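Researcher: Sequence recovery benchmark, item below. Answer with residues only.
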């Protein structure tokens, strides 16, 4: 079934090619006829006395051809232009579009009956062409019918039938020869072509019947007969044309499948196919029938696939098939294709042959004989690439196929694999070393060298490496493989072309990669990272010496690889924990070598690399690795201070250097300091977040004092010192960033130390000393803000002042206000913690207004309202303290306390009114009236109802006097002309 499909496809392709060639030949013949006709017209027009007829160019569809027929011109008349003006013709009705003129004619030379024939149409196709071919096919079928009739009737024995078929085919071919000899009488070449084709078909059929139906001859004899008929067909094609060649192509390639055999002779079949395809290609070259040669090669390669996949091949069969494919893919394209698209055909032929031999290697079990055949095709490919410049890239295909085959080789023996790998490396590497720096070479040759070298290590690792293998052997193999691209790079060191493309970079990178792989295989895990870092540093120095940025780019990739290898080291976790302050057991020597060696490589990149953004990253990495190295042997207690101390040293070192030269390292060390501060900051942040929900901040939930000192306070001091030392080496943004971080560290450390000073361990401590602690903390924040303002550190002053105000509002005023929370304020009236608690924000509001009156004037109303609220809360809290003592949140209100509230409200209202009159501030006066009305309403509605006797009288008297006093004040000090509403 597969053979039938292949034959049908081949036949369809050949028929299509034949039709296209026939159409092209007809067009050429028509053009030649037109050229001859034009030459005849030109000769006639130059004869004396002839009428000159000049035709316009071929008209377009829908236009008439304008023919000018001027009068005879006397001999002595002046020259007349070839294109005279056309005669004026009266307008006519629209003329239907006409087909374009296909010829140029004259009335003197041609009549209507003598015009050239029109293009092939229905009559041409069904009247001239198809009947002749139909007749040939009918004759062939007739021969077959005669044989069938003789079989059905049993008239003739098998041998006679076969002989009669051969005689009939021979007779038809003789008729074709007669038609050739009497061509003038026959008048059509298709007659002899049809007879020859029918005769060849009869011969093919007779041989096949003799072999397959009657078994009169064996397979070998049938092959010989079909080969002879194919040779006859090729010979007849030289006399009768392409149809005979077409039959020879189909019959010659289909013969092995048509004969058939359960146990085919592979060497004989390969010889037959080689002869058949070679004969067809020879005819193709002699007759310039490119379609025939290409079709023969396609069919031959189709048979190559069938031969490879058709069954198990022994050594002789494999050798025969391999030789056949070599001849088909290499020899025939070179010998028989010398014109036209010869390079494309040769390239395709060698590539397909290589693929099919690769199939032969895989299907044949990867024997050394099969590999030898692939070596032959590889040699041929290398020879072609040197012989034909256009095929210089062909070895890429062979190398790719070989690598894929070696990868797919199942369970190879070490001896066979070593032989094949070594042979392939020599076969492809040596020519590449000669060509990689020659004119016309580019990155493709360098990539092939890299592929050979990488395969030299990767493929043995794939097939033979196990957990029990001795990695040192593979490390040595990696070093040997690395020598190949290194040698190729050395060959191009003094070549000017080294700077043109990336060949040098590809070779150096491949060599470095193989050496890195060898180091990872041969060295202990802890030594791999610094060793690869050293390779990366060496490649960087080579890039600087070679003035090749491409090499530097790949050097960065190996530096990154070194970092990855370091993190993959099993000991890296212990080293990292030691750097984080945990006393983890580790090997000090290996840790220092691993981290310190890689730090040195990173420092070299930061110092010498031309890629500045990456160099800055390397500088930061070097600083971090240097800290990690020192942390392996430095006392654990000093580790939190170490990065900040190193940052101070960097600031001192940077002073004579260009601006910002050590900024990446300083930023990295700052980051390490932040990491050290992360744990106490996180503890403090969680506690602070819970405190916003009313949870007291107690000592057990805060960081230890030593952590706050070493991780926050000490670094904060060193950071401030670094900013001052570096000076202009740091830009304003960097200075501000470090200053903000130092301020955060310092404030957090101060707060933690402050909390440790009060030592609030439980809820009882919080109730007894919590209000005092908060008041002193707010006083401290306000004092720092005032000092910062005096020192012209206004942003810092505003930040700390805002923090103190927010702390007072959130905690002292809302969450833990003594009026509703259990907070001891002190046992003495007035002289207790209420006075400083409310006096501090009042003082701050006054200082803010005085420090910058121009900016705060817009917030006078807000400030006044805040002052009124604070005063009223202080008055209410103080009154509560007089009646209840240190805890104001105790339940119950005595009648005397209730009356005192009303009296204090009246006093406060008088005070607000006096202040409003003095400051001419309407807000205070309005507040006074509101407070007075509230007091009056309370006295009349609540207080009076609960009093009797002198107490009620006293309350009314006090209220009356207050109201009179307010009226007097308004009439005395607030005359209409003095009132300024604000």
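Model:
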């Amino acid at each position: 079934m597969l053979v039938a499909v292949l034959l049908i496809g081949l036949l369809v392709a050949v028929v299509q090619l034949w039709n296209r060639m026939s159409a092209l030949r007809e067009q050429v013949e028509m053009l030649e006829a037109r050229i001859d006709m034009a030459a005849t017209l030109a000769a006639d027009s130059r004869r004396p006395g002839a009428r000159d007829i000049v035709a316009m160019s071929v008209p377009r569809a829908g236009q008439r051809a304008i023919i000018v027929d001027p009068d005879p011109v006397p001999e002595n008349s002046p020259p007349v232009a070839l294109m005279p003006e056309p005669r004026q013709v009266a307008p006519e009705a629209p003329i239907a579009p006409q087909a374009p003129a296909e010829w140029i004619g004259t009335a003197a030379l041609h009549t209507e009956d003598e015009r050239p024939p029109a293009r092939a149409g229905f009559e041409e196709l069904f009247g001239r062409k198809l009947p002749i071919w139909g007749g040939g096919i009918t004759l062939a079928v007739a021969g077959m019918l005669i044989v069938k009739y003789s079989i059905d009737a049993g008239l003739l024995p098998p041998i006679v039938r076969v002989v009669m078929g051969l005689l009939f085919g021979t007779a038809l071919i003789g008729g074709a020869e007669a038609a050739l000899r009497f061509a003038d009488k026959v008048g059509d070449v298709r007659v002899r072509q049809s007879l020859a084709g029918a005769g060849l078909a009869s011969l093919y059929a007779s041989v096949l019947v003799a072999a397959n139906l009657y078994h009169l001859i064996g397979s070998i004899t049938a092959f010989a007969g079909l080969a002879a008929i194919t040779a006859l067909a090729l010979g007849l094609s030289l006399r009768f044309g392409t149809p005979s060649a077409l039959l020879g192509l189909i019959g010659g390639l289909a013969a092995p499948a048509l004969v058939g055999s359960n146990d085919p002779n592979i060497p004989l079949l390969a010889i037959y196919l080689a002869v058949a395809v070679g004969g067809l290609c020879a005819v193709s070259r002699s007759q310039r029938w490119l379609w025939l040669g290409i079709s023969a090669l396609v069919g031959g390669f189709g048979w190559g696939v069938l031969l490879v996949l058709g069954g198990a091949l022994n050594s002789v069969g494999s050798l025969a098939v391999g030789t056949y494919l070599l001849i088909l893919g290499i020899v025939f394209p070179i010998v028989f294709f010398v014109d036209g698209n010869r390079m494309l055909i040769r390239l395709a032929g060698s590539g397909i042959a290589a693929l099919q031999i690769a199939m032969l290697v895989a299907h044949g079990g990867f024997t050394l004989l099969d590999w030898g055949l692939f070596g032959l095709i590889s040699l041929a490919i290398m020879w072609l690439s040197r012989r034909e410049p256009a095929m210089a890239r062909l070895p890429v295909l062979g190398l790719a196929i070989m690598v894929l085959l070696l990868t797919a080789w199942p369970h190879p023996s070490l001896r066979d694999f070593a032989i094949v790998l070594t042979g392939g490396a020599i076969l492809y590497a040596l020519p590449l070393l000669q060509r990689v720096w020659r004119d016309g070479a580019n990155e493709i040759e360098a990539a092939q060298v890299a592929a050979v070298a990488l395969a030299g290590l990767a493929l043995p690792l794939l097939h033979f490496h196990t957990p029990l293998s001795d990695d040192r052997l593979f490390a040595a193999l990696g070093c040997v493989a690395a020598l190949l691209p290194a040698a190729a790079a050395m060959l191009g060191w003094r070549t000017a072309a080294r700077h043109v493309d990336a060949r040098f970079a590809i070779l150096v990178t491949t060599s470095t990669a193989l050496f890195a792989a060898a180091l990872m295989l041969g060295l202990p895990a802890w030594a791999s990272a610094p060793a690869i870092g050293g390779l990366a540093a060496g490649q960087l120095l080579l890039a600087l010496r070679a003035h090749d940025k491409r090499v530097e780019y790949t050097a960065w990739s190996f530096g990154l690889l070194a970092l990855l290898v370091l993190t993959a080291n099993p000991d890296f976790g212990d080293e990292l924990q030691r750097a984080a302050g945990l006393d983890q057991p580790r090997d000090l020597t290996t840790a220092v070598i691993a981290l310190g060696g890689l730090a040195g490589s990173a420092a070299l990149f930061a110092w010498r690399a031309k890629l500045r953004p990456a160099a800055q990253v390397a500088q930061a990495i070097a600083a971090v690795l240097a800290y990690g190295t020192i942390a392996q042997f430095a006392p654990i207690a000093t580790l939190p201070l170490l990065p900040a101390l190193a940052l101070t040293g960097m600031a001192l070192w940077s002073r004579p250097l260009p601006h910002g030269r050590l900024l990446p390292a300083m930023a990295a060390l700052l980051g390490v300091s932040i990491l050290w501060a992360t744990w106490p900051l996180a503890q403090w942040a969680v506690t602070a977040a819970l405190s916003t929900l009313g949870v007291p901040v107690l000592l057990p939930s805060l960081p230890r004092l030593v952590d706050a000192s070493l991780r926050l306070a000490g670094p904060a001091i060193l950071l401030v010192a670094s900013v001052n030392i570096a000076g202009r080496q740091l830009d304003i943004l960097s200075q501000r960033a470090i200053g903000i971080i130092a301020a955060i560290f310092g404030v957090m450390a101060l707060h933690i130390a402050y909390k440790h000073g009060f030592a609030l361990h439980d809820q009882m401590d919080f109730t007894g000393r919590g209000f005092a602690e908060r008041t002193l903390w707010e006083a401290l924040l306000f004092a720092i803000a005032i000092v910062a303002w005096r020192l012209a550190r206004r942003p810092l002053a505003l930040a700390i002042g805002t923090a103190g105000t927010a702390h007072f509002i959130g905690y002292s005023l809302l969450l833990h206000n003594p009026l509703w929370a259990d907070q001891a304020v002190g046992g003495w009236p007035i002289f207790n913690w209420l006075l400083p608690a409310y006096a501090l924000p009042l003082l701050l509001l006054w200082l803010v207004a005085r420090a910058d009156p121009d900016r705060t004037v817009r917030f006078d109303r807000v400030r006044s309202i805040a002052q009124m609220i604070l005063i009223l809360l202080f008055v209410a809290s103080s009154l509560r303290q007089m009646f209840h003592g240190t805890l104001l949140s105790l339940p119950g209100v005595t009648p005397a306390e209730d009356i005192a509230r009303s009296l204090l409200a009246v006093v406060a209202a008088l005070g607000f009114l006096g202040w409003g009159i003095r400051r001419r501030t309407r807000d205070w006066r309005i507040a006074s009236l509101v407070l007075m009305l509230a007091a009056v309403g309370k006295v009349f509605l609540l207080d009076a109802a609960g009093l009797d006797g002198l107490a009620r009288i006293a309350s009314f008297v006090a209220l009356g006097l207050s109201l009179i006093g307010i009226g007097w004040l308004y009439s005395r000090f607030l005359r209409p002309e003095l009132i300024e509403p604000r």
